[in-house]
Amino acid sequence: MPIALKDHEWRENTTHLYVTLKLPNLAAKDTHVHASDNFLKFSCPPYLFILDLPRTIVPEKSIVSIAKNELSFELLKETSELWNTLQLDPPLSRQELITRREESESRGRDRLLKIHESAVKEKRERERDMVRKQIDVERVQRERIEDMKAAVRAAAEVEFLYTSDFASSVDDQSDLVPDDLLPPSRHSQPEIATAHNVPSTDDEMISYRNEASSDVRHAPVRSLHKTEDEEDGLTPEELAFIQAKVVRAMKPEGRPPPPIRESREIEVGFTSRLPIPTSVARESEDEKWRARIDHFRAAAAQAPPPDPDNVPTQDADTLLSLFNKFYSLENYQAALNALNSAYSLAPSPHLLLHRAAAHLKLQDHNAAVADCTALLIDPDVCNSEMRATAFSRRSMGLLALGEKESALRDLAEASRCSKHPEAKRALEAAREVLHNEMAG
What we know:
By secondary structure, this protein is α+β, with helices and mostly antiparallel strands. It has helices at residues 94-172, 200-216, 236-250, 278-281, 283-302, 316-328, 332-345, 349-361, 365-376, 384-400, 404-417, 421-439; strands at 3-4, 9-12, 16-22, 32-35, 39-44, 47-52, 57-66, 70-77. The strands form two sheets. It has a four-stranded mixed beta sheet with strand order 1-6-5-4, covered by helices on one side. The protein has a four-stranded antiparallel beta sheet with strand order 2-3-8-7, with no helix packed on it. Helix 1 runs antiparallel to helix 2. The longest helix has 79 residues, at 94-172. It is elongated, with a radius of gyration of 54 Å.
């Protein structure tokens, strides 16, 4: 049964309530704390503390601190005010307290549900914001790539127009330039000749041609004689040049790939494994368990026997286990003392049977007969095996007291009540021996 704690210290201010409990050997792993808006419960076996608060608190923002011998609560008040007391005014009956706590639990569940729904909603909003930001980033990247493509395309068109203006100027002055100074076809290497009969404007034209060639570098140059298909579009060479520049502009700049490692040889070996029988595989586990059982048996054998003069009286089950321990050690007087204490705490027919056995071992036959008779006259004892045992032990006491006829009748009753064949045969054999002894 838990021990209810009543003593506690408390103090308050307008925002918080502080409650402190003093407990010996407080362990955090065994501590359970539950709080609602007007109810506080703490359990740490065998201690129990329950506090019904006069006003409401905020459980989600309250704090509990566990020290070695102290438990402290820091409770946040729902409204900023001084309570001046922890007692309910007016006091409530037990049923009213139960109803008040159930209503508090219901409010707590609703509050936790709202907090959960709010957290889920905030999480979804954050996920949507992240998706929107990612879409914006991708849009900016696409726009940047499109701008780069447009810039490269514009640069290529400028270079193309630059070379086209040069070709047009040559065509306009072809009547002034001799045939040997006209530019060759597209696929031939251009040559520049010097003519003494060319006007000075021709020298400027040749200089302009040299400068244009050095600026354009590797850019493709249109032929001076266009075909009808090339009047309105770009040639395949010009398209390939523009595409190469766009690819170079879009290629990400980064570290060069690492060099390829030198090829080597790796030797791999495998250990042959054969199927192992189940019995062999379990041998190691069986050995571990046997060693563990031997260890516990040795520790139990070396443990000192319980003190017969110091028998605890707070638990009937503990006293019954002490009776079995003393009885196995053949300390029948100590076993009887433990059993008397257990019977005084929790009277039971089983304890009468055990006590009768202890009386028989101590040669107190009258007490053994009295205990068995008290069990047999109890109308609540309907267990046939228990009655058979009581008749059997009473017959042993009566036989020791010289009352053979009564002992013979008890053996007959024990044989009649017993349901086990082996016990029945043993009782019949004992009754036959006693009958023959009385007849002889």
